[in-house]
Design a protein that fits this description.
Blueprint: H1 7-27, H2 35-54, H3 62-79, H4 94-108, H5 112-130, H6 134-137, H7 140-208, H8 215-233, H9 240-251, E1 255-259, H10 269-285, E2 291-296, E3 303-310, H11 314-322, H12 331-335, E4 337-344
Parallel strand pairs: 1-2
Antiparallel strand pairs: 2-3, 3-4
Helix pairs in contact: 1-2, 1-4, 2-3, 2-4, 3-4, 3-5, 4-5, 4-7, 5-7, 7-8, 9-10
Length: 349
């Protein structure tokens, strides 16, 4: 259960208390020696309170805290000399409660050090001005008590906020862990279903034949085993068309290797479909290759996938053995490359 006071209500209450102090100050103007200093204190207090209440940010800006502290220092110095205390305590010392209220606002806005400096100066000045007994009779102890209560409340709220933040972080980590576990379970189930779909017909054939398979069936088992490995090592490269072309090449006697080294996970679905289509088209062009390697490129490169088809050139090897073509310094490796294709990560407009 969360219990809180809206910020507008809290600001409204603080503003109401501040206006109440100004009203008391206005009612005591006929009973002071000079009106000018009291009016100046009223204006200064109104400006400092407005800055403390309405300054932006969760924590009060330093300039506003300094302005409020300066106000707490100036008001007793300016107002005390024009107040008559012989008739006993009264509303003429309104600025004592007003300073306490302003310092409480500082505590709530996260500037406790400024607030304690303000009420500390208020207490010292009051003792120097009216004596030690004035701390209680003029309400200085009350202002100090309110600042102390506000400090305890602010510390408790900050601690509760930190605890709440820790709980939120722990809840988020738990949700992330649960999501990861669900993803692992889904991935495992998907891979199992994919493997079952691919291998079940051949497994049923093995059962029906009691293990007595023909050479063609044994070779098909090897192709299926390689296809299952593709689902693990090259899963981001696979689509139905790519699977079909890879199987066609293997059945034709070629060796096909798929390597998913990452780099495609951040792409949009349209780019993934385009890359799969281009990979399938590249495999169709690699019909004369004996070894085909398809590999993804890591993030940050313009190329997403490279497709390389190599041809075992038996004739070239025999010529080299007889000493022919020795003056062709860089043709041997180029002659063995049947296909080289780089598929871009994004289409260039």
């Amino acid at each position: 259960m969360k219990v809180s006071i809206p910020a507008g209500v809290a600001i409204g209450l603080a503003a109401l208390f501040s206006v109440y102090h100004l009203v008391l100050a206005a009612t005591t103007l006929p009973r002071v020696h000079e009106i000018g200093p009291i009016v100046a204190c009223m204006v200064l207090y109104a400006a400092a309170t407005g800055a403390a209440l309405f300054a932006p940010g969760r924590a009060l800006p330093v300039w506003a805290a300094c302005f409020s502290l300066a106000t707490a220092v100036v008001m007793p110095v300016v107002a005390a000399p024009v107040v008559e205390l012989r008739s006993g305590p009264g509303y003429a010392t309104w600025w004592i409660a007003a300073v306490g209220t302003l310092m409480v606002v500082l505590v709530v806005r996260g500037r406790g050090a400024f607030a304690w400096a303000g009420v500390g100066f208020l207490a010292v000045h009051t003792v120097a001005w009216a004596g030690l007994d004035a701390l209680g009779s003029l309400g200085v102890l009350g202002s100090v008590a309110w600042v102390a209560i506000a400090t305890v409340f602010a510390v408790a709220m900050n601690r509760a906020t930190r605890v709440r933040r820790d709980f939120i972080r722990a809840e988020q980590e738990t949700e992330d862990w649960q999501a990861a576990q669900d993803a692992h379970v889904f991935e495992r189930q998907f891979r199992l279903s994919q493997t079952t779909r691919m291998a079940l017909p051949m497994l049923q054939r093995i059962i029906d034949a009691h293990g007595e398979l023909t050479d063609a069936e044994r070779e098909e088992c090897l192709h299926l085993e390689q296809a299952i490995r593709d689902e693990i090592r090259g899963r981001s490269l696979l689509s139905d068309d790519v699977r079909a072309e890879v199987m066609r090449l293997r059945r034709a006697g070629a060796t096909v290797q798929l390597h998913d080294d990452g780099g495609l996970d951040d792409l949009e679905a349209d780019d993934i479909r385009r890359i799969h289509a281009q990979v399938a088209d590249a495999l169709r062009q690699a019909r004369g290759a004996d070894n085909v390697i398809v590999r993804t490129v890591g993030e940050g490169a313009d190329t997403a996938v490279t497709v390389v088809g190599l041809r075992l050139d038996v004739a070239a090897s025999q010529s080299a053995a007889l000493g022919a073509g020795l003056d062709d310094e860089d043709g041997d490796e180029d002659d063995s490359v049947a296909l080289w294709m780089e598929i871009p990560r994004h289409l260039v407009a």
